[in-house]
Amino acid sequence: MEALNFHNYPSVIGYYQALRKEVWSITQESWPQSSIKGISWKTARLADSWKEMRGANLRSSRASWDWEPEFNAYQKKPKRYEMSVWYENQLCGLCYGFASKHGTKVRMNLIESTPVRPNPLGEGVFPILSFGATVYANLISADEVWVLDPVKGAIDYYESQGFSAPEIYHGKRVGMKKL
Fold it and tell me: How far is residue 107's CA from residue 100's CA, in Å, rounded to a whole number?
């Protein structure tokens, strides 16, 4: 994977947008059964609609945040990591994160998958999002990928996906580092 040259872009925003597009392209090649994209305002609104869904074939727990305000906040962060995972026309999951101040870590801050069960991609959404975060880390020469503030019900799953047991991240938050 060849790093993009920062000097070939007229702005920091353009450089990081090119990085995200490269991440989506590389991830798409590895998971051709899904469609890998960024997060648009419409995608954020669609993810927020999951909170209104009720039914027997739905996961009962939902994210504690709303995606639309997060979309507005993350648009102001040029170094953000963002990815949405689709199967046909169904949003299956999405993630926001960003690179640390010095670019040595990539944090996956907000992660959610569709509450619809069965999910068309099964438990494959997180591995796709994690792979994308790893590609992003490689492109910016970061040496760590973290899941921050993992929900208790997902800790065992994250560990099965190659992340460490929860530990304190940067003295304040709980995180799980990719091993």
Answer: 7
> What is the residue-level pLDDT of the chain in tens, covering all 179 positions?
556 776 677 788 899 999 999 999 999 999 999 999 999 999 999 999 999 998 888 887 788 899 999 999 999 999 999 999 999 999 999 999 999 999 999 999 999 999 998 888 988 999 999 999 999 999 999 999 999 999 988 999 999 999 999 999 988 899 999 98
- Reported as type and span, the H/E element at residue 35 is strand 35-37
User: CB under 8 Å to 82, separation ≥6 — which residues?
Assistant: 20, 38, 39, 74, 94, 95, 96, 97
Residues 6+ apart with CB under 8 A from 70: 44, 96, 110
What are the Cα distances from residue 19, in Å, to 41, 83, 91, 149? Answer: 20, 12, 22, 25
Alpha-carbon distance of 127 to 76, in angstroms, equals 27
Q: How many CB atoms lie within 10 A of CB 61?
A: 11
Closest among 85, 111, 106 to 96, alpha carbons compared: 111
Helix (H, G, I), strand (E, B) or coil at 13: helix
